[in-house]
Amino acid sequence: MTPDLTSYDTIVLACSGGKDSVAAWLHLLDCGVPPETIEIWHHDVDGHGSSFMDWPSTHPYVRALAAYFGSPCYLSWREGGLKGEILRDNVPTGAVLCETPDGIVRRGGNGRLGTRLRFPQVSASLSTRYCSAVAKIDVADMALRAQDRFLNRRTLFVTGERAEESPNRARYAVLEPHRTDTRSGTRRRRHVDHWRPVHAWSEAAVWRILERYGVIPALPYQIGFGRLSCALCVFMSPDQAATLRFIMPERFGAFVAYEQEFGCTIKRDGGLDRFADRGRIYPVALARTDLVARALEDRWCGPVVTGKWTLPAGAFGENAGPG
Distance of CA 17 to CAs 35, 56, 156, 199, 200, Å? Predict the structure, then answer.
């Protein structure tokens, strides 16, 4: 189901930098949407702080793509990032900050006191696997609610979930009112539709549209990762864990130390070190130290499109990520 794209005052694309959200972006271009009218929103899960959960190269990659296509790009983040929420000890969840056309807006941060002191746990429940809600879903909701420019206007919020990824995502509607929609309200009316344009696409179709546009996939795909989740995603596979321990030993070691401090492991069947022992390091991560170094830099160097496109090593690989 394709909505009338000309009927919206604003089109917002939530772009992680992963193949699916980039495919949704390119599909909008295929549909004739002028790139300068597509707002690219990227959620920085590390909260503008030092790298902890995520790949440092991800948000520079999204910025570079936006600059190439001529789309405005706005970052949003939770104050303190996911690390702040994981280490939360009798303090409120951090405020949300978002870049807007008129500067940075800050909301929240004054909620009830609470304590986490544990990593998100592998689960389909967003209360148990709280990382997605805290660092992405709730951040986007707050960014929409905090900006009066969306009142009394029609907004289309676009995301890249695909049914093929998991049974949970297969149940998502292709087009529905967004959680922040208040079109039927009596005050502060906000019409927001949520569209998932690549929901029925196969992974092959996703790679085909990236190839057609020549878009260079994000660096973790080139190293061998099948999805662009957080680097240290709680859904990581044994091979991913082994690779991460090899390419970022200090960050991996910090996670192991926190598991011991919390008395609660990420994986139910044991600690991360033992989990990584079961895996094998991705061959490209061993052979291409240049790609690994670039993936761990907080900048993007070089082009984002190429005339000599090749399928990345991680294509059609492990689908280890949130469902």
Answer: 16, 12, 19, 17, 19
Beta pairing, strands 103-107 & 96-100:
antiparallel
Asked if residue 171 lies in contact with residue 161, where contact means CB atoms within 8 angstroms, the answer is no
pLDDT tens digits along 126-171: 778 899 999 999 999 999 999 999 999 999 999 999 999 888 889 9
Q: Write out the two tokens for 320.
A: 């280890």
Map tokens 């909505």 to a residue. Answer: 3
76 has which bridge partners? 43, 98
- Please give the structure tokens belonging to residue 233: 């995603």
Region for residue 251 given its phi and psi (left: phi exceeds 0; alpha: psi -120 to 50; beta: otherwise)? alpha
d(CA 271, CA 314): 25
Contact 241, 272 (CB under 8 A): yes
Q: Indicate the SS3 state at residue 78.
A: strand
Distance (Å, whole) CA 256 – CA 258 = 5
pLDDT tens for residues 178-214? 999 999 988 899 999 999 999 999 999 999 999 999 9
* CB-CB contact of 94 with 62 (8 Å): no
CA distances from 190 to 9, 198, 267, 272 (A): 12, 25, 41, 44
Please state, as a whole number, how many other Cβ atoms lie within 10 Å of the Cβ of residue 298: 13
**Measured torsion, CA atoms of residues 320, 323, 84, 300, in degrees rounded to the nearest 10:** 60
